[in-house]
Amino acid sequence: MSTQPVVGELDKIATDARRRIESAPDKETLEELRVELLGKKGVVTGALRGVGVLPADQRAAAGARANAVKTEIDQQLVARQRALEQNRLEGLADSEWVDVTFIPDGAATRGHLHPLTQAQREITAIFSRLGYQVALGPEVEDDYHNFQALNIPEGHPARDEWDSFYLTQGGWLLRTHTSPVQIRFMEAHPPPIRIIAPGPVYRHEATDAGHESQFHQVEGLLVDEDVRMSDLVGTIEYFSRSMFGADRRIRITGDHFPFTEPSIGAAVSCGICKGAGCSSCKGGWLEIMGAGMVHPQVLRNGGIDPERYSGFAFGMGLDRIAMLKYNIADIRRLRENDVRFLEQF
Ligand code: PHE
Q1: 315: CA distance to ligand 1 center in Å?
Q2: pTM for the full model?
C-alpha cells in the first residue's frame, strides 16, 4: 500500500464514520457501513495495512491510533444497533397494534343453525324423550323398498301420488318418502322398535308456496306387542303440544295409505291466520303428517310376525313443521339461502 496514513487522515475517517453511524436509519445501512469501514477492503482495514510501510519512528503511534479508531467504530456500530432496536421495540405499540375486537362492517358476524335443522333437532329431542332412536336410510332407493314392500306394487294407482325422479339405470329412484326406512329398519332389528328417520325426499312436483320438489320428512315407526290407535293419537298430541305449544289445536281425519290400515291424517291449526284461512294453509289447518297402524303385510315384509306384534307409523313434512313453528308463509324461502330471511330465526 503506497498511501501514507497519517494520524490526521485517521481522525478524518473517525469523525466521518461517527457522523454516518449516528444517523444510520436502519440495520441494513449499519451493515453496509460496517463493511465499508471495517470490511476486508474497508477504509480502516486499508489504513491499518498502510501502517506497516511507515518509517519505523511513526509506526507505533499510527498503529495505536488506527487500532483505536477501529475499536471506536466497532463500539459505535454496536451502540447504534442497540439504539435502533430499542426504538423499534418502543414503536411497536404504535406500529403493530391490532384491535382484536374490531369487526369489519357486515362481515364475520356469528351465524346460527338453519330453521330446518333447528326444527329437525327439536323433533328429535321430543321423540328421544319418548324413547325413540334416530335411524337413517339411503336417499337413492330401489323400487322394492320405496314402493313394493310398502304395499305399492307396480301399476298401483297410489304410485301417481309419488311422481318420482328415476335414475337412468338399474331402476333406482330418489326416495319419494322416508317410509322405506321402516322396512330397512325392520329387516335389521327385531321388535320392540321405536325410531324416527329424518331426511330429504324428492318428488316431481310443480312448486308453489306449499310445495317443493325436494323437501324433508321425519318418519316415525313404533312396533311392539299390543300397540293401538290410541297410542298413535296420544303420541301425535304429545308431539304437537311439545313442538307448537298448547294453544295450537290438532285435527285427526281419516286418510288412506297402502302401508297403514287404518290410516289417518293429522293437521295443526295455522299460526299465521290463527285458523281463519290464508294462502299458506288449507282453511286454517296445515296438514303435518300422514299416519296409521302398520299394515300386517308391511310387518311381514319387514320380517315381523303380525300375529304377535302391531305398530304405528307416521310421516311428517319437516318443512311444513318449520313453517308452522316459525310462521313462514312460503316453503321456497327455506331453500333460497337468503340471509335476510334466515337471520330472523
Ligand atoms: N310416506 C307417507 C307420505 O310420504 C307418509 C306416511 C308415513 C303415512 C307413515 C303413513 C305412515 O305421504
Answers
A1: 4
A2: 0.67
